[in-house]
Design brief:
The structure is a homodimer of 275-residue chains. By secondary structure, chain A is α/β, with parallel strands linked by helices. In chain A, the strands form two sheets. Chain A has a six-stranded parallel beta sheet, with helices on both faces. Chain A has a four-stranded parallel beta sheet with strand order 6-5-7-8, with helices on both faces. The mean pLDDT of chain A is 94. Helix content of chain A is 46%, strand content 16%.
Chain lengths: 275, 275
């Protein structure tokens, strides 16, 4: 009997745009030999202000495109798509494992501040669905959760204005809105893949007592554990290959994506695809 | 011989989202008896960061949808779509007249400051195409033009943070970026339909010498002139009907759209359509 060896197949990573490259980067740090293929649905970003029905349809189309490339696992690097469509994508992909970023982000917060008060900064759609609140309560019934929509932080990260007075006042205002009333956060969850770019300013304003966590690192750990459990880690030791797909605007993808990946990209690094 | 009387048909107005409601409002002020139908392509907004090819395809689909409603004129209320697709939509709609917002905006600036220096605040896509620069030069060869991409102003207007310190510092920074070097603006063109919401803060920072102009008023005048020339103005004197269509998120459309229209909208006022 022969077993089909799929370990050299790439891990597929999907996001509404470039923000998920922070998750890709964490996976590359954790598992440098894995081959990775990333799809950014730049033609229809942002997802965070769209309706759940549209988000679910877009996510299903992106997933179908990645399946054409024969992937061994799917990572939904977009918080909004994870909040809306994780279960339906797991059905669509079965038996290929599908991992979202919401549960890993929630686990990171619970580990950092057990029994604590968690402030989730996220997009409108993610907040409306309360996905982080549900995931945190499931793992830590004593925890308290507040979710705050922060659309301007997305634009701020895309513009590259990630420090200075403007970033400072916008973050201050959202935190003040969130902490209005009796809520004092022990942890802040960066519940959108754009927000790690603003980690420094958020940490500084929140103060040393507050743990600022994101999904990228814990998602990469979950990817490693899942592949290990199924014997699916790539066998070789070299540097894995990286393929970048986008549905629109290769030039903008390269420019803004480079900020997220922390390395310069050119338009030739990005392949345009239709969904 | 009988002539087909189309004067009671609605004027179709199309935008990527809710921003074009500022143009709709100006048309309603200018021509209160006209029936109006507005389509906001909220499923795929914003257009300003997308590629010209995608923008052209979206605009053609939106136009086809409005044609199903039997319109007597099409107004492209989105600066980006006007910059990219005006001519192709005029072909698609022939003989129904099609008016964009770029040329009326350019005419308003030239009229306010003949031979002057014009600063265009717009989206990335509009700036990349240089549509305002071309339109201004055609009507005033002595004019100088600088175009500045201001993506954060879009998010600011949608968030409703249209005054206060944050709006102030963001506008200051974009104006400082634009006036870096030798350029001193005599007029500022609000080259995105979101920006009229920020007119007060822009005017205050720019100072009394600078004319701040937008396309809405002049577009409404061009609509009147075009209909008058063809005998197409509606005959009755009552208040015209208004129909609002959106491709996604009726609730968000109602909430944000109300800010632009200056009146409360409910989710029942907005009909969802597929493109």
């Amino acid at each position: 009997m022969t077993t089909y060896d799929n370990t050299s197949l790439p891990i597929g990573i999907f996001d509404s745009g470039v923000g998920g490259l922070t998750v890709l980067q964490a996976i590359r740090d954790e598992l440098p030999s894995e081959n990775l293929i990333y799809l950014g649905d730049t033609a229809r970003l942002p997802y965070g202000t769209k309706s759940p029905a549209s988000i679910a349809r877009y996510a299903a189309q992106a997933t179908a495109k990645l399946l054409e490339h024969d992937i061994k696992m799917l990572v939904i690097a977009c918080n909004t798509a994870s909040a809306v469509a994780l279960e339906s994508l797991q059905e669509q992909m079965h038996p290929v494992p599908v991992i979202g970023v919401v549960v890993p982000g929630a686990l990171a917060a619970v580990a950092a501040r057990p029994g604590g008060a968690h402030l989730v900064l996220a997009t409108e759609a993610t907040v409306r669905l309360g996905a982080y609140g549900k995931a945190i309560s499931r793992h830590d019934p004593k925890a308290r959760v507040k979710e705050q929509a922060c659309e301007l932080l997305v634009a701020l990260a895309e513009e590259g204005w990630t420090n200075g007075d403007i970033a400072d006042s916008i973050v201050r205002r959202y935190l003040a809105d969130a902490e209005h009333g009796e809520f004092k956060a022990d942890s802040i969850i960066l519940g959108c893949t754009h927000f790690p770019l603003l980690r420094d300013v958020i940490s500084e304003i929140a103060g040393d007592d507050v743990a600022v966590v994101d999904s990228a690192g814990t998602t990469a750990s979950v990817v490693r554990e899942t592949l290990t459990a199924s014997g699916g880690l790539v066998a070789c030791n070299g540097r894995g290959k990286l393929k970048l797909l986008a549905t629109d605007g290769a030039m903008r993808f390269a420019r803004v994506g480079g900020q997220f990946l922390g390395e310069a990209l050119t338009v030739e690094d990005v392949q345009l695809v239709d969904l």
